[in-house]
């Protein structure tokens, strides 16, 4: 299975940041890494990012509305993302669950909307520090998978991102054994039909730790926040994935 390295720019980036995408796209042309690369900039930059990527890397959204169109001020549908040239969308990121009160029911509707538009849903799950300390990690992940991943998910329609909330933007990461344990657990829960679904790890992935994390079994790539904002760091992480192939 080809690994997928996805960059999540969050609410960062103005026009000049597209130089980062151009740099990564140019590098992808020459290095031809045997993996898939996706960058999810803010929605305002998607169309220009698609142009800057010149088909060398995929561009995605960071969120979407479940409905295809209508009176939903401020929202963006998956059809609109696709129209702008996006081929994927992140749904259920913990920042959306936390700051926008997104429930599993909403996340599953968004994932289905991605499928409807023919773009890949990158569905995020992950426990908080308190849940991990209380020994509830597997229960929380199992609940989120049941609630947020639609029936019939396959490797071509869906990726899962395991992102422990306490590891996002903190510089902290679970141990390699803990990452391997949760990825094996998710793989098992995805069951028959889900064998080709890539399970990304996310949360403080950096050039320094990428190689070790990406070498773990059942790690199908990474969802990278902060380190995706610098082309050089992002390239180092893409190279680390390539080294596994
Ligand atoms: P981080 O963010 O790499 O900055 O920890 C990851 C994410 O939230 O997707």
Rg result: 17 Å
Order of helices and strands: EHEHEHEHHEHHEHEHEH
Q: How much of the sequence is in beta strands?
A: 15-25%
Main sheet summary? 8 strands, parallel, barrel
> Helix count, per DSSP?
10
User: Helix proportion of residues, in percent?
Assistant: 40-55%
Average predicted confidence as pLDDT: 95
Order the strands across the largest sheet as they lie in space: 1-2-3-4-5-6-7-8
DSSP strand count: 8
Please mark out the parts with pLDDT under 50 across 5 or more consecutive residues, or reply none.
Answer: none
The dominant shape is: globular
- Structural class, judged by helices and strands? alpha/beta
Produce the secondary structure layout.
Elements: E1 4-8, H1 18-31, E2 36-40, H2 46-53, E3 58-61, H3 78-83, E4 88-91, H4 94-99, H5 104-117, E5 120-125, H6 129-133, H7 137-148, E6 158-162, H8 176-190, E7 198-202, H9 210-214, E8 221-224, H10 231-244
This protein binds 2-phosphoglycolic acid.
